[in-house]
Design a protein that fits this description.
This protein has one domain. Strand 10 and strand 11 form a beta hairpin. It starts with 6 loop residues before the first strand and ends in a 43-residue tail after the last helix. The strands form five sheets. The chain has a three-stranded antiparallel β-sheet with strand order 1-7-6. Strands 8-2-9 form a three-stranded antiparallel β-sheet, with no helix packed on it. It is α+β, with helices and mostly antiparallel strands and 293 residues long. The C terminus is likely disordered. Helix 4 crosses helix 7 and helix 6 runs parallel beside helix 8. It is flat. Helices cover 25% and strands 17% of the residues. It comes from Aureimonas endophytica.
Length: 293
C-alpha cells in the first residue's frame, strides 16, 4: 500500500480482505469518528471530543496516546478496551466524497494497512459491475451508517456551539489540541431558557454534552478545557448569554408555519346576533357634490 494517501478500492479489486487482527495503527490515527449508536459505550473507555471536518463539528474518540489515561493498544497490537468503535472495525476503508453506481467506486482505502493481501475473503465479485463480496458489502453498509449517524450528531453539536459551551481541549501543559470539548463551568452556568432551547428538538444535545463530560475520566491527568484569554469578549466567555432565540432560529426548518384553516368563530349561527357584527350604514350623500338625493 502507498503511504501517499487514500487509493480507490477499485484498484485493489483483485486482492483479498484479511482478518483485522492488529490495531497498531490506532494510536497513529489520533482520533476516530463515532456513530450516534455508540457514543455512550465509547464514553465508558475513551475520551470523547469534537473535531472540525469540512468546517462542521464531528464527534469522535481520542486515540492520541499522549492524551489518554491508559494505553488502549497492548502488546502485539491487541486492542485492550472492552468496546471496539465502528471506525476501527472498518479500517482502512472510508467513503469517497460522492456516491457511484458501482459500489466499489464508493470506497477509498487509507494507507498503511495490512488488511489487504492475498489471503482471506475476496473484495470484489465482479470487477466489471463493481459488485462487492458479502464481507466487503457489509463494510460498505456500515460506512454509510457511520456517515448518516455522524450527520445527526453534527446537528446536535451545532446547538452546543451556539450555546457557547465548547472549548479547546488542552494538553497537561496547557497547549491546545486540534480537538474541542465541553467546558464544564459554562455548561453548569447555562440558564434554564438555554437548557430548554437545547432540548427543543430532542435531548441529544444534552445527552452528548453529558457523555463528553463523563468521558473526561479517560483523559490523561492535566488535560482540560482551555479557558479564554483574559480580556476576551464577554459573549465568548459565558454560556448564560446564549439567547434562546438563537436556538429557535437555528431550527427554523423544524417549525410548522402552516396556517390554521379553522373558522375564526366557532358558534351555532342560531345563537349569534349577526346584526352586532354588521358594518355601519353608509353616510347620507345628498349634500355631497356628484351624488343625487
Amino acid at each position: 500500500m502507498s503511504e501517499a494517501g487514500p487509493v480507490p478500492l477499485a484498484s485493489l479489486a483483485d486482492r483479498r480482505l484479511e482478518p483485522l487482527a492488529r490495531f497498531d495503527f490506532a494510536p497513529r490515527l489520533g482520533w476516530i469518528a463515532l456513530n450516534d449508536t455508540e457514543f455512550h459505550l465509547s464514553a465508558q473507555h475513551l475520551p470523547l471530543a469534537l473535531r472540525l471536518v469540512g468546517g462542521l463539528p464531528r464527534l469522535g474518540a481520542v486515540l492520541d496516546p499522549s492524551l489518554l489515561a491508559k494505553p488502549q493498544v497492548g502488546g502485539e497490537g491487541r486492542w485492550l478496551a472492552p468496546y471496539l468503535p465502528i471506525a476501527l472495525r472498518t479500517f482502512p476503508f472510508v467513503l469517497a466524497g460522492r456516491p457511484s453506481e458501482r459500489p466499489i467506486d464508493e470506497i477509498l482505502v487509507l494507507p498503511g494497512t495490512r488488511r489487504i493481501g492475498t489471503r482471506g475473503q475476496p473484495i470484489c465479485l465482479d470487477p466489471a459491475t463493481g459488485t462487492l463480496a458479502p464481507e466487503m458489502q457489509a463494510i460498505r453498509n456500515t460506512l454509510h451508517m457511520l456517515r448518516k449517524g455522524g450527520e445527526r450528531l453534527t446537528r446536535a453539536l451545532d446547538l452546543l456551539g451556539i450555546a457557547g459551551i465548547l472549548a479547546p481541549l488542552g494538553r497537561p501543559g496547557g497547549e491546545a489540541t486540534p480537538f474541542l470539548t465541553i467546558d464544564p463551568e459554562r455548561f453548569a452556568a447555562l440558564d434554564p431558557g438555554a437548557v430548554a432551547a437545547l432540548a427543543h428538538e430532542s435531548f441529544l444535545p444534552l445527552d452528548l454534552a453529558t457523555a463528553i463530560l463523563f468521558s473526561r475520566r479517560a483523559l490523561a491527568p492535566g488535560c482540560a478545557a482551555l479557558q479564554p484569554a483574559s480580556g476576551a469578549a464577554e459573549t465568548q466567555t459565558g454560556a448564560p448569554r446564549a439567547d434562546p432565540l438563537d436556538f429557535m432560529f437555528a431550527n427554523l426548518e423544524t417549525l410548522n408555519f402552516a396556517l390554521d384553516p379553522s373558522d375564526l368563530f366557532e358558534a351555532d349561527p342560531a345563537e349569534v346576533d349577526w346584526h352586532d357584527l354588521a358594518p355601519p350604514p353608509l353616510p347620507a350623500m345628498r349634500h355631497v357634490e356628484g351624488f343625487a338625493p
